[in-house]
Amino acid sequence: MADSKKVINLDEDDGSTFTFSLVVKADKWDDVITILKDTLGVTQKLNSSNRDINGLFLVSCWFKAEEITKDFYKKIERSDSISIHSDGKSSSLYPQILKEVQAIEERLRWLLLHVSDTIENYLELVNAKTGVVTTKSLDPITANLTLEKTIDLLGFDQSWNDRPITATDVARIAANSSNFAEFKKSFTEKTTPKTIWDSITELVLDTPVAWHVIEPKLGKVKVIRNKCAHFHTVTDDDLSQIKKLRTDIIKALKTTKRASAGKKDYEAFNLEFMKSLNDIINTKVAWVSTLAQLSAETQKSLSLLSGISESIKPITTNYKGILDSINIAPISPLSGLIDHNVLLRLQQLDLNAKKDEDAGDKK
C-alpha cells in the first residue's frame, strides 16, 4: 500500500499545476492506485486516508498543465472507473469563458432594449414568454432575463399567427383603415409570422442577419456557458470556441442605426426645442414692446386729453355764464297764434334790450 505524507490542497493551483478531485470506483485502496496509474499515469503519492463510500473513493491529485490535454479528458470519459468531481484547470477557465459570454449577453439585452419601443405590447409579450415580472422593475428586460430566456424571447413570434384573433383586433385595424385595401394590408402584416429577432434585424442591425443563422451560434454559447455556471468540465477548446463565437456574433450584431438615429433624433429635438424657445422669447419680447408702445401712446393720449380739457375749461365756464344770463320772458298763451319766426325775433330783441341795460349800468 502506498503511503503519503503530503496532501494536495485545491488552493495550491498556480497555473503550472492543477488539482483534480477524482471519483474512483474500486474494491480497495490498492486498486485505486493501480487504476489511476494505468489510466492517467499517476505516480504521485496519494492520501491513503480516503475511505470507501459504497465502492467509490474520492481522491485528490495534481497534474501539470501540459498533461491536461484533450486526450487526458478523453481517457477519463472512456473510463468506467474514473470520473471528475472537481477540476482545477476548468476552474481557471471559468472566469475567462464567462467574460466572453458576458459580452454576448449584454449585446443581446442591448438589442432587446432598442427594439422595445417598436413592438406592440412588448412587455406583455416578454412576460408571457419568459415569466419575468415587469411591473416591479425599472428595467425588467436586462435585469431579469437569463441567456436561455433571452434566446427564447428573440425567437418568439410576435404576430397574431399563433394566437386567437378577437373582434377587438379586427375592429382596431378597421378603425385605422380608410378602405378595404388598407385593411387587407394591415391584417396580412399582423398575421404574418414575425419574430422579435426579425424586428431587430430590420430596425436595428446595420446588416440583416437571419434568425436561423444566429440561433445555432447562440445555442453553442448557451452550452458552454451552462458548463461554467454548473461547474462542469471545460477545456481550452471551449475557451477558443467561445472567443470565436463572441467575435462572430458581436461582428454580426454591429449596429449604428438606432444609436446614431437616437443621437440625430436628440440633436433634431434639441434644435427644434431651442428654435421653439427662441420663438417664445421673441414673441414675449414683441408683446412687451407692443405693451410698452401702447402704454406710451396711452400716456400721450391722456396728456392730449388733459390739454384739451384745460383748453375748453374757460369756454365751458363762459358758456355756463351765458346760459345763466339768458332770461326768456314767459310766452303768453297767445304765442301759439303768432308765427314761430316772429316769436324768435321778439325773444332776440328782448335779449338785446337786457344786454343794453346791463351795459348802461356798468357805465
Strand order of the largest sheet: 2-1-3
Q: What does the average pLDDT come to?
A: 76
- Radius of gyration equals 51 Å
Residues in β-strands, percent: 5-15%
Helix content: 55-70%
Q: What pattern of helices and strands is seen along the backbone?
A: EHEHEHHHHHHHHHHH
Count of beta strands: 3
Q: What can you tell me about this protein's structure?
A:
With 363 residues, this protein is mainly α. It has helices at 29-40, 70-78, 88-115, 122-130, 140-144, 147-154, 167-175, 180-191, 196-203, 211-229, 236-252, 257-325, 340-362; strands at 17-25, 56-64, 82-87. A 3-stranded antiparallel β-sheet has the order 2-1-3. Helix 3 packs across helix 9 and helix 10 packs antiparallel against helix 11. The longest helix is centred in the last third of the chain and has 69 residues, at 257-325. It is elongated and about 170 Å long.
Layout of helices and strands, plus pairs?
Layout: E1 17-25, H1 29-40, E2 56-64, H2 70-78, E3 82-87, H3 88-115, H4 122-130, H5 140-144, H6 147-154, H7 167-175, H8 180-191, H9 196-203, H10 211-229, H11 236-252, H12 257-325, H13 340-362
Antiparallel strand pairs: 1-2, 1-3
Helix pairs in contact: 3-9, 3-10, 3-11, 10-11
Give a quick set of tags describing it.
three-stranded antiparallel β-sheet, 363 residues, Alpha-Beta Plaits, 63% helix, mainly alpha, 13 helices, 3 strands
